[in-house]
Design a protein that fits this description.
Layout: H1 8-20, H2 23-30, H3 34-48, E1 53-56, E2 59-62, H4 64-88, E3 94-101, H5 109-119, E4 123-130, H6 132-140, E5 146-150, E6 158-165, E7 167-171, E8 186-191, H7 196-207, E9 212-218, H8 221-229, E10 235-237, E11 246-249, H9 251-254, E12 261-268, H10 275-291
Parallel strand pairs: 3-4, 3-5, 8-9
Antiparallel strand pairs: 1-2, 5-12, 6-12, 7-10, 7-11
Helix pairs in contact: 1-2, 1-3, 1-4, 2-3, 4-5, 4-10, 5-10
């Protein structure tokens, strides 16, 4: 049986259409007509022999086949873009300095560095895992070329690429050691100051009129997770990268204040025409699209 070769342009239109919520928006992004995008979707359905999307209210919903194809499409297009980048810039040389917020160090950094190193083996990468304040200071002083950091609204050369929900976290195996009806202040497990999420936790508790106390302070995220999983205190983070020893606490069930989302931004040093940084930033964006839920990624 002759193998079927999926159309790459059609795959990209399909992926962007789902991420954008409509193929009309995909047409705008790709500079094509809506009818052309629809024709590409029909081509994919003919090639795969199955329906990929169905109408759901005013938007689109994936069928089982569409859900499976979307997962493959992201991987195929990611590898395609990596190959093109490597071929187009085979002699890219130099070095780049990247900083990553602690929450993404273990889960995202290895994937990003691996992909970039395969595409550009002659480029030397200097990586740093750090806290928001440190990353912003090093970007401002020119010690980093790129940094992935929480968006506190103060950075000037920043591109928001995702928005992650904040949540209260407690031990996975048992109820937290605090209950609103007990009259005791809420014990908090926090990182050393200055810490954006520590400040947000205290601010939201104060606004809700909930008494709190600092029960555990850690210089690292690993220590924070250990204290939270042991039930020493409640932490405020995002769900991304949470270890198995902690769980998200329902705000209504535990009488905790509801929380907003927190932006995740890619900070640049402002150096113009830095081709190495441009290629690395593209890989970071793709890695986040592959690892975060669609609803969290900017532009989805």
């Amino acid at each position: 049986m002759r193998p079927t070769n999926l159309d790459m342009d059609a795959l990209r239109s399909f992926m962007i259409g789902i991420e954008a919520g409509s193929f009309a928006q995909a047409a705008d992004r790709l500079g094509r007509s809506t009818s052309a995008i629809s024709a590409q979707l029909k081509k994919l359905e003919d090639q795969t022999g199955t329906a990929l999307v169905r109408r759901s209210g005013r938007g689109l919903a994936l069928t089982d086949g569409g859900e499976a194809l979307l997962s493959y499409a992201r991987r195929i297009l990611s590898l395609n873009d990596e190959a093109v980048s490597a071929v187009q810039c085979p002699n890219l040389e130099g070095w780049v300095r990247l900083g990553v917020q602690e929450d993404f160090g273990e889960t995202l950094l290895s994937h990003v560095l691996g992909r970039f190193a395969r595409a550009h083996p002659k480029v030397r990468i200097e990586g740093r895992i750090g806290r928001n304040v440190e990353l912003k200071e090093k970007i401002a002083s020119g010690q980093l070329d790129l940094a992935l950091a929480w968006d506190d609204g103060t950075a000037t050369d920043a591109e928001r690429i995702a928005s992650l929900p904040l949540c209260w976290l407690g031990p996975a195996e048992e109820d937290p050691l605090w209950h609103a009806s007990g009259g005791e202040p809420l014990p908090l497990a926090v990182l050393e100051a200055p810490c954006l999420l520590r400040t947000l936790a205290c601010t939201h508790l104060d606004r809700a009129g909930i008494a709190w106390r600092i029960a555990f302070v850690s210089p690292s995220l690993a220590g924070l997770w250990a204290a939270t999983s042991a039930g020493l205190g409640v932490a405020l983070r995002t769900p991304f990268g949470c270890p198995s020893g902690v769980q998200v606490l329902e705000t209504g069930q535990h009488n905790l204040p509801r929380l907003p989302s927190l932006g995740l931004s890619l900070l640049g040093s402002g150096t113009p025409d830095n081709e190495i940084s441009t290629h690395l930033a593209t890989i970071i964006r793709q890695a986040l699209r592959n690892s975060l839920p669609e609803a969290w990624v900017s532009g989805s």
